[in-house]
Amino acid sequence: MFLNTLSGRFLILTTVFVMLAEVLIFVPSVARFREDYLLSRLERAQIASLSLLASDMIDENLESELLENAEVFNVVLLRDQVRQLVLSSPIPSPIDATYDLRAIGPLQLIRDAMLDLFKTENRVIRVIGDPVREGGLLIEITMPTAPLRAAMIDYGIRILILSAVISVLTALLLFLAVRRFLVKPIKGVIDAMSSYAAAPEDARRIIQPSAGVLELREAEVTLQSLQTQLTAALRQKDRLAQLGGAVAKVSHDLRNILTSAQLFADRLEGSEDPAVKRMTPKLLNSISRAVSLCESTLTFGKAEEPPPTLSRVQIAGIVHDVIDGERLAAGEYDISFSEDVPGGMVVRADPEQLYRVIANLVRNARQAIAASGEPGEISVRATEDEAAWSITVADTGPGLPPKAREHLFQPFQGRASKGGSGLGLVIASDLVRGHGGRLELESTGPDGTRFLITLPKQIVSLDAAAE
C-alpha cells in the first residue's frame, strides 16, 4: 500500500536516482584511485632507489626488502640520458601490459581501470611515469596486479557503502520534505473536498486557499471557485424545486377549478341569448387551453416518471392507433393521414411511451395545419438499418415559428402555437432519451415540418444520446 502513495514512490525514485548518480561517480573515482595507487608505487620505488644512489654497494637482502616495501619487482631510472636498472628481482611471468602515466586521458584511465578490475588473474605490468622533485627524466617499474586489484575492490566497496548511506539519507530527507511541503497540502485539499462533498450546501465547508506552493494554491483557488458556484447552483436548485412544488400544487387546484368552470360553461351553449352563444365557444376554448396548460405543467413536474420497460413491439400497430385517434380529432378539417410502416417491423421500446411520443408529434402537426386553415397531410414513416430504427413524422403545415425553433426543447419557451405550454416536445425528447435514442428536428419551413426519432439497436448511454 505504501508503494502506491506519492510519498512511497517518491522515496523509491529518489533512492534509485541517487544510486544511479553514485554509480556514475563510482567508475571515474575507481579510475582516479588506480592512478593514485600507481603514482604512489612510482614514488616508493624512487625512494627505494635513493639508497642505491647513496651507496653503490648494498646488501642483497636490503635490496629485496626495499623492493618488497615498494611492492615492485624492478626499478629503472633514466638520469642524464642514461637508462639504469637500479633495483631488480626475478619477475614471475612475462609483462602483460605497459601503462604510461605521463600523458593519458580520462577515458583511457577509466578503460585501463576497468580492465585491471575485471581481470582476476595476477599479471605483471610495467608502469612509466615522471620522477618526483626532478629526480630524473623517467622512472619505470614492474609490479604485480593482485595487490592493485585488491586495493581497487576495497576502495570500491567503501565507495558503494558510502553511496548507499548517502542515498538513504538523501531519500529520507527528500521524503520528509515532500510529505511536509507537497503531500500534507494535497491531503488538506482532499480532506476539504471530502468535507464539502458531505454537505455541499453548507458554505462553511468551502475551501479557503492556504497553500504556500504556487501550483497547489492555484488548485485551491480553482476548487474554491468551483465549490462556490456549485453551492450557489444547489441553493438555486432547491429554490426552484420548492417553487416547482408550489406551482404543481397551484396547477392541480387550478385545474380542478377550471374543470368545474368548463362544466358550467358547457351549459351556456344552450342559452338563447345571441351574445352568450357568440362568447361561449371562445370561453370554452380559453378554459380548455388553461386546463391543458395545467395538465402539461403537472406532467412535466412529475419526478416519478418511470424508466421505459423495453420489449419487442410492432411499430405498425402503435402508429395505426395514433393515426386513428388523430383522424377522429381532425373532424371537419381537410387533413389526410398516411402510414408507411412495414408490417413486420419490430422495435425495442416501451410501447406506452413510444405511443405518447408519436402521438405528441402527430397532434402538433394536426394542430398546426388546422390553425393555418389550409388542407394538409401528415405522414408517419418507419425504416431500419443495421444500427438503428428511424421513425419520421412529417407534415405539410406552415412550419415552426422562429422562436419555437430557437427554444424547441426548452420547457415553457418552445411553444409552437398560441396557448401551448411548450412542454410536449420536452417530454417527448426525454422519453426518447430514456430509450437511449434521440428526437431531432430535421427540417421546417413553409413546405412543412419533419421530425426524426432514432432508436439505437445497440444499448447506449444517456450522455451519448444527449449528444
Please sum up the structure shown.
The chain has 467 residues and is of the alpha+beta class. It has 11 helices and 12 strands.
End-to-end C-alpha gap: 40 Å
The share of residues in extended strands comes to 15-25%
- Compute the CA-based radius of gyration: 49 Å
Counting H and I runs of at least 4 residues, what is the number of helices?
11
**Overall morphology:** rod-shaped
What's the structural domain tally? 3
Helix and strand element order: HHEEEHEEHHHEHEEHEEHHEEH
**Helical residue percent band:** 55-70%
Strand order of the largest sheet: 2-1-5-4-3
What is the topological layout?
Elements: H1 6-54, H2 60-70, E1 74-79, E2 82-87, E3 95-100, H3 106-118, E4 124-129, E5 138-144, H4 146-198, H5 214-268, H6 274-301, E6 311-314, H7 315-330, E7 335-340, E8 346-349, H8 351-372, E9 376-384, E10 388-395, H9 402-406, H10 424-434, E11 438-445, E12 448-456, H11 462-466
Parallel strand pairs: 3-4, 7-9
Antiparallel strand pairs: 1-2, 1-5, 4-5, 6-8, 9-10, 10-12, 11-12
Helix pairs in contact: 1-2, 1-3, 1-4, 5-6, 7-8, 8-10
